[in-house]
Amino acid sequence: MRSRWRALTPYLAISVGGALGANARYLVAAWATTQWGAQFPVATLLINVSGSFVIGLYLTLATERFTGHPAVRLLVATGFLGAYTTFSTFSVEALRLIETGDAAAAISYMVASVVMCILAAAIGMFVAHTLLSRSVRGL
Fold first, then answer.
1. What 3-state class would DSSP assign to 35?
2. Where are the domains of the chain?
3. Please, is 12 exposed, middle or buried when counting C-beta atoms within 10 Å of its C-beta (0-12, 13-18, 19+)?
4. Cβ-based neighbour number of residue 50 at 10 Å
5. pTM of the shown model
6. What pLDDT score does 48 carry?
7. Could you give phi then psi for residue 134, rounded to 5 degrees?
8. Residue 37: what are its φ and ψ, rounded to 5°?
9. What is the pLDDT of residues 8-40, one digit of tens each?
10. Residues 106-122, buried b or exposed e (16+ Cβ, 10 A)?
11. Which alpha helices (DSSP H) does the chain contain, by range?
């Protein structure tokens, strides 16, 4: 019986993280839309950039210092951040901008999304490495 529960642990961790991440995405998107409107997909850009930063930070810390239980990594990275970030919405929003005749906005959105998400992940990794090097030096 115990091994059955143990076998379910990864699925439960991903499910809980996914539920939390999806709700976080909904809340951030609703807030961003009230702040900046829905004409340009700022909400999805904000979500994907912030998620990229967090995954860069978290996975660097998790793999280089705080190994912890594998279920926690599944909960945070696969579940929460997998549900929080959204490539499919990004794709549809870019296509909708093209359909409405705003190719310049679509190209800007696509380039900004890719560049900003990669930079955000790199900054997250840099912050994690900085924190780790300070903790090693005892600062």
1. helix
2. 2-137
3. middle
4. 18
5. 0.90
6. 98
7. -70, -40
8. 80, -175
9. 999 999 999 999 999 999 999 999 999 999 999
10. beebbeebeebbeebbe
11. 2-36, 42-64, 70-73, 82-84, 87-99, 103-137
- Give residues with Cβ within 8 angstroms of 93, minimum separation 6: 41, 44, 109
The angle, 0 to 180 degrees and rounded to 10, between the axes of the packed helices 87-99 and 103-137 is 150
The rounded distance, in Å, linking the Cα atoms of 130 and 76 is: 21
pLDDT (tens digit per residue) in 76-123: 999 999 999 999 999 999 999 999 999 999 999 999 999 999 999 999
What tokens does 16 get?
């809980």
Name the amino acid, one letter, at 79: G
| Cα distance between residue 1 and residue 15, in whole Å | 21
